[in-house]
Amino acid sequence: MTLEEVYTNAFDASLVAWLEHGNTPYLQDSDTDYIVATASGDEGYWAFPNSAGSDTINSVKVRLEYKLATAGAGVCTVYVFDGTSWHEVGTISAKVTVYTWKEFDVSAILDSWAKINGAKVLLIYEKFATGSFYVRRLTRKVDYIPAAVTETITAQSFPMLYVSKPIKTQELISKVEGATITKVANDFPEELIKSGKAAELKSKFAT
């Protein structure tokens, strides 16, 4: 299982009924960039970087940090775009006096990698009474199972032995017969530790 959580990286300002503070896209990982609704209105749209994930999707969630100091001041409705249609995924109206994370499960909406990469977010605020609704930080969180890595041995005459690896380097020992050593880069040091019928070459490389 792999968890990938990324912050929004784009705001196209198609809808700007709220007040923006700081630098676009306003909902990145920052304490000083945020948006605030002081009246009813729509704000959007936010997008995310393409996912590095692939293969089996377990779940997808949208998360944001919000603050609403006055109970009953209003309600914020969150919408997610799947590349074709907009979907209402939930509302926020609970009073919190400090920024608090709110999470929405959108697994049924963003059920493919194409939809995940094309996802956008829209916020619609409806004001009922005096009080402002603040939002900062917006993320897309994907839980997935990456494809298994397969190693294929293509020739039995080229046996390989893996040895323990330190944190920053790996060591691969290969045995070949009748090989000619050609140096292609100085940052790929090699050490010839045996000669004769079966030559043994030990190389170290950084990862």
* Silhouette: elongated
Note poorly predicted spans: none
Radius of gyration: 26 Å
The fourth-level CATH homologous superfamily of the largest domain is: Galactose-binding domain-like
Number of strands: 15
Helical proportion, percent range: under 10%
Total number of domains:
2
Distance between the termini: 22 Å
Q: What is the highest CATH level, the class of the largest domain? A: Mainly Beta
The topology string of helices and strands comes to EEEEEEEEEHEEEEEE
The largest sheet, given as strand count, sense and whether it forms a barrel, is: 6 strands, antiparallel
Class from secondary-structure proportions? mainly beta
Q: How much strand?
A: over 45%
User: With helices defined by DSSP (H or I, 4 residues minimum), what is the helix count?
Assistant: 1
Per CATH, the architecture of the largest domain is: Sandwich
Mean pLDDT: 85
At the fold tier of CATH, the topology name of the largest domain is Jelly Rolls
Q: How would you name the oligomeric state of the polypeptide chains in this document? A: single chain
